[in-house]
Amino acid sequence: MMAFISIMRSHISISLTYKMNILFGYISDILYVVLKCYLWLAIANSNPSFAGETNYIITYFIFVSIIMQLTGNRLTIASNILDGSLSNWLLKPFSIFKYELAQQLGRAVMTASRLWIIILAIVAFMSSYIVIWDYNYLVGILFLVLGFFVSFYIALVIQLFAFWLMRVEALQFIYTMFVDILSGGMIPYKYMPAAIKNIAELLPFKFIIQMPIAGFTNTLSSGEILNNVIMAVAYIVALHFIAAFIFKKGLKKYTAMGG
Fold first, then answer.
1. SS3 203
2. Which candidate, 155, 137, 111, places its Cα nearest to that of 22?
3. Who contacts 70 (Cβ-Cβ below 8 Å, separation ≥6)?
4. Distance (Å, whole) CA 126 – CA 221
5. What burial letters (b/e) apply to 213-229, b meaning 16+ CB within 10 Å?
6. pTM for the full model?
7. Per-residue model confidence as pLDDT tens digits over 21-70
8. What domain count does the chain have?
9. Mind listing the pLDDT tens digit for each residue in 72-113?
10. Which residue segment(s) compose the domain that 9 sits in?
11. Cβ partners under 8 Å of residue 98, min gap 6
């Protein structure tokens, strides 16, 4: 446990070392959210079907932009496999899965620590469009944490295909498209065609964006909260075992190749 925390602290310390990166991170994050909101504002104002929905859309995509930063991840295990440095991890008592998780938790902590500045800047730019809901922070944070782990394990599974592929960028691109569409990142669930929405409701991608937003905005019944928590935990456990299985199979190929 102490090793896990040390890796998290190390990642945070390294991130804090590069002050200009932090500054430009603030600027890019704020510009990304504001520009995306103005884009959707233009779409909403030019489309009669969105009449009266402008404020909802803008508030929704502010949530999307913030939550994506917290549930996203940047794993490196694929590069460890491809450049042979995975061999070093095989000699250590600390699992590379735990190392990747600690790294991503450290990144999420850093992201969360700067979000209050980003949120204040967004409110200053977009205050007239923001809808005030009866927010449920406890449920929102619960689904945010579950979404982080779902996103982590899906990304881990994709990265592990580096045992068989020279590059995993194509898989990552496909995954990004699925996340954008089926998580609610590109289109809110309420505007999705019924057929696509029904499929999306059964897949794990909704926990990355849609469910945290639904949790924060207090639009879920007690039954829906319980059912989705059980579903998210089931997906996390299943993805963990899938990742472990792929790693075990891939390691045989990696070792046979001389790693």
1. coil
2. 111
3. 108, 111, 112, 115, 144, 148
4. 29
5. bbbbbeebeeeebeebb
6. 0.84
7. 666 666 776 777 777 777 877 877 777 777 677 788 888 888 888 898 88
8. 1
9. 888 888 888 888 888 887 777 778 888 888 888 888 887 777
10. 2-256
11. 3, 4
